[in-house]
Amino acid sequence: LISEPNLEEARLCRREFNIMRWAFAVNHATVTTPILTASSVLTNAAGQAGNAVLYGATLLCSMFISTIAFEVLGAKKGLTLSMGLYAIYVLLFGVSASLCAVLDKKQGTCTEGEPLQLPVVLLGSAIGGFGAGILWTCQGAFFASVCERVAKAELRETPAVTAELAGSFAVVFLAMESAVRASATLLTKYANLTYSVVFLLFGVLALASTIAFAAFASNIESPKPRGSLCGKALSAVQLWR
Known about the structure:
The protein has about 240 residues and is mostly helical. It has helices at about 5-40, 45-65, 65-95, 115-155, 160-190, 195-215, 230-240, and strands spanning about 100-105, 110-115.
C-alpha cells in the first residue's frame, strides 16, 4: 500500500519551523550587533574584556553545560532559556553603554567609563556566553526534529527536507542580521538616538522574540533515548578525544 502524505502534520511542522526561524533570527541579530561595536560604544578596555568573557563563557558552557542543559530541558525550553539569556545580555550592554563618563563626539567613541561600566558589561557577557553555549545545541535538535517530521509527513527523503529548510533558515537569519545592524546605524545617525537607547530597544526586541517563541512554538522534539544523565554527559566528553 502506498502511504498518503499527511498534509496537516506537514503544515503544523512547517509552522513550528517558521516560528523558530523568525524568533531565532531576531534574537540572535540583536546580540551580534553589540559584539561588533563593543570597543567603541564602551571604552576599548571594557569592550574587549566583555567580548573575551562572552567567548570564554561560551566555550566553557559548550564543553561542560550544554549537553546537560539539553538533556534536562529539551530543545524548546533550552532554546527559550538561551534566547532569554541573550536578551539579558543585550539589556545589560545597553545599561553599560549609558555609563560612559567621557564621550569623544568627533570619533563617536567612549574614552572613559563610569566605575560600574566594566562590572555591568562583564556580568552581561557572562550571562550571554552561557546562553550562546546552550543555544546552538538546542536549536540544532529543534531543527532536526522539524526536518524529520516534515520528511515523514510529506513522504520525502530527510536530507532533501533538511537542505530545503536550512536554506530557508539561512536567508531569514542573514537578512535579519543585516537589517538589525543597519538599523543601529540609522537610529544613531539619523534619529539621533544614543547607542545606549538603541541597545536597550534591541534588548526589548530580543525579549519579545523570546516570549513569542515560548508562547507559540510547540515541543516537537523526538523522544530521547533512555540512559542516565551522567552517562550521556560522559559520552559527550569522550567525543573530545
